[in-house]
Amino acid sequence: MTETVGSPASAGESEAGARTEGIRVERVYTTEGVHPYDEVNWERRDVVMTNWRDGSVNFEQRDVEFPDFWSVNAVNIVTSKYFRGALGTPERENSLRQLIDRVVRTYVRSGVEHGYFASETDAEIFEHELTYMLLHQVFSFNSPVWFNVGTSSKQQVSACFILSVDDTMESILDWYKEEGLIFKGGSGAGLNLSRIRSSKELLSSGGTASGPVSFMRGADASAGTIKSGGATRRAAKMVVLDVDHPDVEEFIETKAREEHKIRALRDAGFDVDLGGSDMVSVQYQNANNSVRVSDEFMRAVESDGQFSLRARTDGSVTDTVRARDVFNRMARAAWECADPGIQYDDTINDWHTSPESGRITASNPCSEYLHLDNSSCNLASLNLMKFLREDLTFDADLFRRTVEIVITAMDISICFADFPTEAIGRTTRDFRQLGIGYANLGALLMATGHAYDSDGGRALAASITSLMTGAAYKRSAELAGAVGPYAGYARNAESHQRVMRKHAAANDLVRTYHRNDTDIHDLATQVWQEGLEIGARHGWRNAQASVLAPTGTIGLMMDCDTTGVEPDLALVKFKKLVGGGSMQIVNRTVPRALRALGYPDEQAEAIIEYIAEHGHVVDAPGLRPEHYEVFDCAMGERSIAPMGHVRMMAAVQPFLSGSISKTVNMPEHATVEDVQEIYFEGWRLGLKALAIYRDNCKVGQPLSAGNGDKERGEQQAGKEIEYRPVRKRLPKKRPSQTISFTVGGAEGYLHAGSYPDDGLGEIFIKLGKQGSTLAGVMDAFSMSISVGLQYGIPLEFYVSKFQNVRFEPAGMTDDPDVRMASSVLDYLFRRLALDHLPYEKRAQLGIFTAAERTEQVNGADVSQEQNELDSMRESVEHSAQPRPVVQHPGDDTEAGSSTELLELKLGKAADAPLCMTCGTKMRPSGSCYLCEGCGATSGCS
């Protein structure tokens, strides 16, 4: 707990009120005279990280030190991603103590230098409390803090950036440069292009302007180049355009038109998988696009009225359109390719604490950070499950005190932080934007017996979020009394106070249903009242305090079951064991939920066994149907309806300074009208931003077995285009090779014939005795594959379909490059990939030769700047805690992540990309995807 210590006013006081002599810090988790490190059992582990598909070693560091309750997954991710120093040198960090000390001591030292603490004792207590919370996975800073703080690198602490661009060529070129620098550092940025004059307006020279969409091409190409130059993930960026811009309809259609191009290229036999050689001709793929809509526009949509598009140069009306037509175009484009998203401009700026310093025009790539142009936000997230007591009640007071300590540390970081541009540094220091948030909400709701899509679940989530932001702003007001309000506060004092009252008023409207959320809500009400009183005297230290970020990698670091505001992915998970091997486990929140719902132990065990076998709760023995909804997940037999996600976002949005990183996933059969309904309800319910993703809507995706390569027969731009495949026959004389093989004791031969100018054109497989049923089936199968290859179906498509297919015979092979195979087809198509596909495509599929695997081990990149290291697969379960497990020895030959395990249970493919680092299927995390094994993300930092 912290409090401020008063002092007489001095001549140097801020206008907001008298400053104090720093804050006093009370112990929350720690004991006087006992260091947090002395309260845990430490153990030494070897971190050897492999690509699960072929067993190649991607990273190795032995004899690292961690507490015994940290899971294998968390240890691997921290060791590979966050430890600094070259591998194999004495400078390399090898203990969690070193990592935490490097970061925490930098924070404490800066806090002392800038007068945050009333005494040395308070600084010491603060150091111990921060250390304890990080050691026990109570919270985590965002990744840039772990990468940079306390090292010789620039002290970059922010992952979220917003840039600006004006209607001049100099500004546009600066945009390209600044965005490139941010991408180079592994972060992302967003900006609004609406200041750039439209293609319907004239230049001062008399010519016609290019328009913002034209300049997007250059920025997109730059992002793609920088991505391909060093990162394994796409560059993360957001591009926003106002709905009244004359080029808005062109902007809406940009990515949808490119999706039509991808389909045409695919049907013509070109390589359009993510990273494919022919994807370079497809534009606008490196950004998320969003249209910024106004209340005026949405009311025109509601009433089927007209809406004016206005010139950027003089504000004159260039055209008048039917608002509903524009809105329908947005929904159809999003239905086709998931872009554009929507941002609600008037709602965003109505909650803006600093409007006198400029409007909020854009967001970071995931839409959770919304504030002034040329600014940044550093993030930290709390693990909500750490505040759940044994009696399944939430410890609201402990949560409040934790928030106070964390938000203090976050504010201190701005005192020593470095920034990518001078403008961003200046704005961030003047407004001190912070983004405290949380992870594990989905797990908390299930564990306490709440359905994610329920009034009770939303009340609990709203109360917790209100308490978090209320405590953060109360601490911010106390810090303003100690070290002064943010520099822009005096100019924006009235607006800031108005927004604080709006938050408090929204808190008063929360309806609670259970003692749990009632207790939290009562404390939140008290905290908001106290914060308003302190802020009226001193102002606030921070223009922004809270957001809900994806919490991807740091969520795994904290051993969280769910990320951000998301529900649980599924009821069964994939877990790697400390001593090697893996097992399928039932989600550890399930038994707590059954206990919260009143089920006796024996009955709960029977339900858990059923879930382990089937992956869902439908018809589970003894489970009452009215309790099914408690176990609804993002995927599975009973998945949460899209509007259920929207309603949860609406429940917590009034208690966030920024917004929420979340994509509303929709089933493939969803309609354009369904998208329109979600976008409209988002506005009506008071959201700030919203994005949707319809399953299998995109063609150019990472290879993923079963993802929609089938034709869907939709009309494109009002006309139907017919594509006819052309067969390219092999010449009479062609190069070929024959390979003998053994799989699980079964012998056979593979004959592969190629075109003279390279490229596989036919295969013949001899397996079984001549005239046998097996031999006949393999002959027919070979003929089918050969004809498909000659009609232009890429080999990598077949490889993605048939690798990991499981049936007997299976097991050891006599091939040094493919030591194990789950079936004959699994072996044959891995062998064909090794012989006929380039390294880049094989890397996407996780297929390497033995020599390549050895070379990866010997030549691994150990640069301190490397942020994306290869890793092994495993789930995020906390290995030291007892939980029900059901082991299936054969599962780990078929599944490498919880998503893939769920696919096996459902019997259908999940529409998620493969991790480009370790090859396993990723899972949704906010508005991007997260790899459970190595912590890599598809775009969010």
From TrEMBL:
<comment type="similarity">
    <text>Belongs to the ribonucleoside diphosphate reductase class-2 family.</text>
</comment>
<dbReference type="GO" id="GO:0004748">
    <property type="term" value="F:ribonucleoside-diphosphate reductase activity, thioredoxin disulfide as acceptor"/>
</dbReference>
<dbReference type="Pfam" id="PF12637">
    <property type="entry name" value="TSCPD"/>
</dbReference>
<keyword id="KW-1015">Disulfide bond</keyword>
<dbReference type="GO" id="GO:0050897">
    <property type="term" value="F:cobalt ion binding"/>
</dbReference>
<dbReference type="InterPro" id="IPR013344">
    <property type="entry name" value="RNR_NrdJ/NrdZ"/>
</dbReference>
<keyword id="KW-0846">Cobalamin</keyword>
<feature type="domain" description="Ribonucleotide reductase class II vitamin B12-dependent N-terminal">
    <location>
        <begin position="47"/>
        <end position="137"/>
    </location>
</feature>
<keyword id="KW-0170">Cobalt</keyword>
<dbReference type="InterPro" id="IPR000788">
    <property type="entry name" value="RNR_lg_C"/>
</dbReference>
<protein>
    <recommendedName>
        <fullName>Vitamin B12-dependent ribonucleotide reductase</fullName>
        <ecNumber>1.17.4.1</ecNumber>
    </recommendedName>
</protein>
<dbReference type="Pfam" id="PF08471">
    <property type="entry name" value="Ribonuc_red_2_N"/>
</dbReference>
<feature type="domain" description="TSCPD">
    <location>
        <begin position="731"/>
        <end position="834"/>
    </location>
</feature>
<dbReference type="GO" id="GO:0031419">
    <property type="term" value="F:cobalamin binding"/>
</dbReference>
<dbReference type="GO" id="GO:0000166">
    <property type="term" value="F:nucleotide binding"/>
</dbReference>
<keyword id="KW-0560">Oxidoreductase</keyword>
<feature type="region of interest" description="Disordered">
    <location>
        <begin position="858"/>
        <end position="896"/>
    </location>
</feature>
<feature type="domain" description="Ribonucleotide reductase large subunit C-terminal">
    <location>
        <begin position="158"/>
        <end position="693"/>
    </location>
</feature>
<dbReference type="Pfam" id="PF02867">
    <property type="entry name" value="Ribonuc_red_lgC"/>
</dbReference>
<comment type="function">
    <text>Catalyzes the reduction of ribonucleotides to deoxyribonucleotides. May function to provide a pool of deoxyribonucleotide precursors for DNA repair during oxygen limitation and/or for immediate growth after restoration of oxygen.</text>
</comment>
<dbReference type="InterPro" id="IPR013678">
    <property type="entry name" value="RNR_2_N"/>
</dbReference>
<feature type="region of interest" description="Disordered">
    <location>
        <begin position="1"/>
        <end position="22"/>
    </location>
</feature>
<feature type="compositionally biased region" description="Low complexity">
    <location>
        <begin position="1"/>
        <end position="15"/>
    </location>
</feature>
<dbReference type="InterPro" id="IPR024434">
    <property type="entry name" value="TSCPD_dom"/>
</dbReference>
<dbReference type="InterPro" id="IPR050862">
    <property type="entry name" value="RdRp_reductase_class-2"/>
</dbReference>
<keyword id="KW-0237">DNA synthesis</keyword>
<dbReference type="GO" id="GO:0071897">
    <property type="term" value="P:DNA biosynthetic process"/>
</dbReference>
<keyword id="KW-0547">Nucleotide-binding</keyword>
